[in-house]
Amino acid sequence: MQIRQIMVATDFSAAASAAAEAARAMAADLGARLHIVHVVPPLTDPVDEADRLDLEKTRLKVPAETALLRGRPGPELVRYARDKGIDLIVVGSHGRSGLSHVLLGSVAEHVLRLAPCLVLSVPGALALPPAERGARADVPTARHCVACARETDELICAACRERIRGEALSRKMEAERAGRRGA
Protein backbone atom coordinates (compact mmCIF):
# COMPACT_ATOMS: atom_id res chain seq x y z
CA MET A 1 0.00 0.00 0.00
CA GLN A 2 1.40 3.36 -0.99
CA ILE A 3 0.63 6.41 1.15
CA ARG A 4 0.52 9.57 -0.96
CA GLN A 5 -2.00 11.72 0.93
CA ILE A 6 -1.85 12.17 4.72
CA MET A 7 -4.47 14.15 6.61
CA VAL A 8 -3.99 15.44 10.13
CA ALA A 9 -7.01 16.66 12.05
CA THR A 10 -6.39 19.52 14.45
CA ASP A 11 -8.35 21.24 17.16
CA PHE A 12 -5.17 23.13 18.15
CA SER A 13 -4.85 21.15 21.40
CA ALA A 14 -1.66 19.54 22.72
CA ALA A 15 -2.94 16.14 21.54
CA ALA A 16 -3.51 17.53 18.04
CA SER A 17 0.00 19.03 18.03
CA ALA A 18 1.48 15.61 18.85
CA ALA A 19 -0.54 14.13 15.98
CA ALA A 20 0.60 16.92 13.64
CA GLU A 21 4.25 16.23 14.47
CA ALA A 22 3.76 12.53 13.70
CA ALA A 23 1.95 13.35 10.44
CA ARG A 24 4.66 15.83 9.41
CA ALA A 25 7.40 13.28 10.00
CA MET A 26 5.52 10.56 8.10
CA ALA A 27 4.77 12.88 5.18
CA ALA A 28 8.44 13.83 4.96
CA ASP A 29 9.61 10.20 5.19
CA LEU A 30 7.10 8.95 2.61
CA GLY A 31 7.14 11.94 0.28
CA ALA A 32 3.41 12.28 0.83
CA ARG A 33 1.22 15.38 0.59
CA LEU A 34 0.07 16.67 3.99
CA HIS A 35 -3.46 18.00 4.57
CA ILE A 36 -4.07 19.95 7.79
CA VAL A 37 -7.79 20.04 8.55
CA HIS A 38 -9.73 21.89 11.23
CA VAL A 39 -13.48 21.62 11.71
CA VAL A 40 -15.35 24.50 13.31
CA PRO A 41 -18.20 22.98 15.32
CA PRO A 42 -21.76 24.26 14.85
CA LEU A 43 -22.64 27.43 16.76
CA THR A 44 -18.97 28.38 17.08
CA ASP A 45 -17.49 31.63 15.81
CA PRO A 46 -14.76 30.80 13.25
CA VAL A 47 -13.21 34.29 13.37
CA ASP A 48 -9.61 33.34 14.25
CA GLU A 49 -9.64 29.76 13.01
CA ALA A 50 -8.16 30.46 9.55
CA ASP A 51 -5.24 32.33 11.15
CA ARG A 52 -4.68 29.51 13.64
CA LEU A 53 -4.67 27.01 10.76
CA ASP A 54 -2.07 29.08 8.88
CA LEU A 55 0.07 29.28 12.03
CA GLU A 56 -0.10 25.48 12.37
CA LYS A 57 1.04 25.08 8.75
CA THR A 58 3.93 27.50 9.38
CA ARG A 59 4.87 25.73 12.63
CA LEU A 60 5.13 22.37 10.86
CA LYS A 61 7.52 23.81 8.23
CA VAL A 62 6.29 21.61 5.39
CA PRO A 63 4.26 22.28 2.28
CA ALA A 64 0.69 21.40 3.14
CA GLU A 65 -2.86 21.90 2.00
CA THR A 66 -5.12 23.39 4.67
CA ALA A 67 -8.87 23.09 4.99
CA LEU A 68 -11.24 24.87 7.35
CA LEU A 69 -14.56 23.05 7.51
CA ARG A 70 -17.82 23.64 9.40
CA GLY A 71 -20.01 21.03 11.04
CA ARG A 72 -19.66 18.06 13.34
CA PRO A 73 -15.95 17.19 13.41
CA GLY A 74 -16.14 13.38 13.02
CA PRO A 75 -18.39 13.25 9.95
CA GLU A 76 -16.69 16.24 8.32
CA LEU A 77 -13.22 14.69 8.68
CA VAL A 78 -14.40 11.40 7.20
CA ARG A 79 -16.12 13.24 4.31
CA TYR A 80 -12.96 15.25 3.58
CA ALA A 81 -10.86 12.06 3.58
CA ARG A 82 -13.24 10.43 1.07
CA ASP A 83 -13.41 13.50 -1.18
CA LYS A 84 -9.63 14.02 -1.28
CA GLY A 85 -8.59 10.37 -1.57
CA ILE A 86 -6.66 10.44 1.70
CA ASP A 87 -4.55 7.32 2.36
CA LEU A 88 -3.84 7.93 6.07
CA ILE A 89 -5.60 10.01 8.71
CA VAL A 90 -3.64 11.04 11.80
CA VAL A 91 -5.67 12.15 14.82
CA GLY A 92 -4.76 13.04 18.37
CA SER A 93 -6.56 11.27 21.16
CA HIS A 94 -7.35 13.16 24.34
CA GLY A 95 -7.70 9.93 26.31
CA ARG A 96 -11.17 10.56 27.69
CA SER A 97 -12.65 7.59 29.44
CA GLY A 98 -15.67 6.62 31.47
CA LEU A 99 -18.75 8.81 31.57
CA SER A 100 -17.24 11.81 29.75
CA HIS A 101 -16.35 9.53 26.83
CA VAL A 102 -19.84 8.01 26.75
CA LEU A 103 -21.59 11.39 26.91
CA LEU A 104 -19.27 13.45 24.73
CA GLY A 105 -18.13 10.77 22.32
CA SER A 106 -14.80 10.97 20.60
CA VAL A 107 -13.85 12.48 17.27
CA ALA A 108 -10.91 10.05 17.08
CA GLU A 109 -13.23 7.09 17.70
CA HIS A 110 -15.71 8.30 15.06
CA VAL A 111 -12.90 8.64 12.52
CA LEU A 112 -11.47 5.23 13.46
CA ARG A 113 -14.84 3.55 12.91
CA LEU A 114 -15.87 5.26 9.67
CA ALA A 115 -12.70 6.29 7.84
CA PRO A 116 -12.22 5.07 4.28
CA CYS A 117 -8.49 4.57 4.91
CA LEU A 118 -5.87 3.82 7.53
CA VAL A 119 -6.06 5.82 10.78
CA LEU A 120 -3.26 6.52 13.22
CA SER A 121 -4.39 7.64 16.67
CA VAL A 122 -1.65 9.51 18.53
CA PRO A 123 -2.03 9.63 22.32
CA GLY A 124 -2.11 13.13 23.73
CA ALA A 125 0.45 12.10 26.35
CA LEU A 126 3.09 12.24 23.58
CA ALA A 127 2.70 16.03 23.67
CA LEU A 128 4.18 16.01 27.18
CA PRO A 129 7.90 16.24 27.84
CA PRO A 130 9.35 12.70 28.08
CA ALA A 131 9.92 13.00 31.85
CA GLU A 132 6.20 13.68 32.44
CA ARG A 133 4.70 11.05 30.12
CA GLY A 134 4.39 8.24 32.63
CA ALA A 135 3.93 10.28 35.79
CA ARG A 136 0.85 12.43 35.17
CA ALA A 137 -1.71 12.27 37.95
CA ASP A 138 -4.66 13.05 35.65
CA VAL A 139 -3.94 10.15 33.29
CA PRO A 140 -6.10 7.25 34.48
CA THR A 141 -4.22 4.08 35.28
CA ALA A 142 -7.36 1.97 35.20
CA ARG A 143 -10.85 2.28 33.81
CA HIS A 144 -14.13 0.97 35.06
CA CYS A 145 -16.85 -0.79 33.11
CA VAL A 146 -19.74 1.58 32.37
CA ALA A 147 -22.21 -1.26 33.01
CA CYS A 148 -20.98 -2.79 36.29
CA ALA A 149 -18.14 -0.46 37.44
CA ARG A 150 -15.59 -3.31 37.70
CA GLU A 151 -12.01 -2.37 36.86
CA THR A 152 -11.18 -3.12 33.21
CA ASP A 153 -9.10 -1.85 30.29
CA GLU A 154 -12.25 -1.71 28.17
CA LEU A 155 -15.27 0.60 28.14
CA ILE A 156 -17.41 -2.48 28.88
CA CYS A 157 -15.83 -5.49 30.61
CA ALA A 158 -15.85 -8.93 28.96
CA ALA A 159 -18.49 -10.33 31.33
CA CYS A 160 -20.93 -7.47 30.67
CA ARG A 161 -20.23 -7.60 26.94
CA GLU A 162 -21.11 -11.31 26.88
CA ARG A 163 -24.25 -10.71 28.96
CA ILE A 164 -25.38 -7.92 26.62
CA ARG A 165 -24.73 -10.06 23.54
CA GLY A 166 -26.61 -12.96 25.11
CA GLU A 167 -29.59 -10.74 25.93
CA ALA A 168 -29.64 -9.38 22.38
CA LEU A 169 -29.45 -12.89 20.93
CA SER A 170 -32.29 -14.05 23.19
CA ARG A 171 -34.49 -11.12 22.08
CA LYS A 172 -33.71 -11.85 18.43
CA MET A 173 -34.54 -15.54 18.78
CA GLU A 174 -37.77 -14.74 20.64
CA ALA A 175 -38.79 -12.29 17.91
CA GLU A 176 -38.08 -14.93 15.24
CA ARG A 177 -40.18 -17.53 17.13
CA ALA A 178 -43.02 -15.01 17.50
CA GLY A 179 -42.79 -14.27 13.77
CA ARG A 180 -43.05 -17.98 12.87
CA ARG A 181 -46.05 -18.46 15.17
CA GLY A 182 -47.83 -15.47 13.61
CA ALA A 183 -47.18 -16.61 10.03
Secondary structure topology:
Blueprint lengths: L4 E5 L4 H17 L2 E8 L8 H12 L3 E7 L2 H12 L3 E6 L4 H7 L2 H8 L3 E6 L19 E2 L6 E2 L5 H25 L1
Parallel strand pairs: 1-2, 1-4, 2-3, 4-5
Antiparallel strand pairs: 6-7
Index terms:
five-stranded parallel sheet; 2 domains; elongated; Rossmann fold; 183 residues; two-stranded antiparallel ribbon; 20% strand; alpha/beta
Give a quick summary of the entry.
With 183 residues, the protein is an alpha/beta fold.
Would you kindly provide a written description of the structure presented here, covering whatever features stand out?
Mean pLDDT is 80; it is low at 97-104. Strand 2 (33-40), helix 2 and strand 3 (64-70) form a beta-alpha-beta unit. Helix 3 (73-84) packs parallel to helix 5 (107-114). This protein has 183 residues and is an alpha/beta fold. The protein is built from 6 helices and 7 strands. The strands form 2 sheets. It has a 5-stranded parallel β-sheet with strand order 3-2-1-4-5, sandwiched between helices. It has 2 domains: 5-128, HUPs (Rossmann fold, 3-Layer(aba) Sandwich), CATH 3.40.50.620; 152-182.
**What is the CA-based Rg, rounded?**
20 Å
Number of domains: 2
Q: List the uncertain runs.
A: 97-104
The top-level CATH class of the largest domain is Alpha Beta
Helix/strand structural class? alpha/beta
- The dominant shape is elongated
What number is the mean pLDDT? Answer: 80
Reported for the largest beta sheet, the result is:
5 strands, parallel
Helix content: 40-55%
The side-by-side strand order for the widest beta sheet comes to: 3-2-1-4-5
The tally of strands reads: 7
Question: Alpha-carbon distance between the termini?
Answer: 51 Å
CATH superfamily of the largest domain: HUPs
Beta-strand percentage range = 15-25%
* SSE string, helices as H and strands as E: EHEHEHEHHEEEH
Helix segment count?
6
Q: Identify the CATH architecture of the largest domain.
A: 3-Layer(aba) Sandwich
CATH fold topology of the largest domain:
Rossmann fold
